[in-house]
Amino acid sequence: xxxxxxxxxxxxxxxxxxxxxxxxxxxxxxxxxxxxxxxxxxxxxxxxxxxxxxxxxxxxxxxxxxxxxxxxxxxxxxxxxxxxxxxxxxxxxxxxxxxxxxxxxxxxxxxxxxxxxxxxxxxxxxxxxxxxxxxxxxxxxxxxxxxxxxxxxxxxxxxxxxxxxxxxxxx
Length: 171
Fold this sequence. Notes:
Layout: H1 2-19, E1 27-35, E2 40-48, H2 49-60, H3 75-86, E3 87-91, E4 94-96, E5 99-106, E6 109-116, E7 124-129, E8 140-147, E9 150-156, E10 162-166
Parallel strand pairs: 1-8
Antiparallel strand pairs: 1-2, 2-6, 3-4, 3-7, 5-6, 7-10, 8-9
């Protein structure tokens, strides 16, 4: 009886301690909006700086030192290459390229701004986002879409890194 109580206490204590153990979540957020008046897809991406540095720096063997006085002068070049290789879009089945407009830092996060101009008649939008997945097995890339009053959120993971939004052409 004493052994059972001791074992139950030990299991309860261990499970309680493990539930408070620090766990880092690997998440990014990409917002894709269609600007009807400008006929453009406007894209904002958000990442934790340290996660992005690990992925981009590892891929190009560079120490970017983002958001510091020592930031590499051409860090945007490497970021733009990385984004172009890991973030892909297809509109109506045709591949499109997003122009990298720049970045902005806020606390421990970095925001990227991209745009695809001269877009009309979106019937389907396919998104593939494998950013950071080569570094973090648990990476989740949330993609929120807002196109002609159609809103949808995808959660892309390594095993399922692509999704498709179909838009009713009568909208």
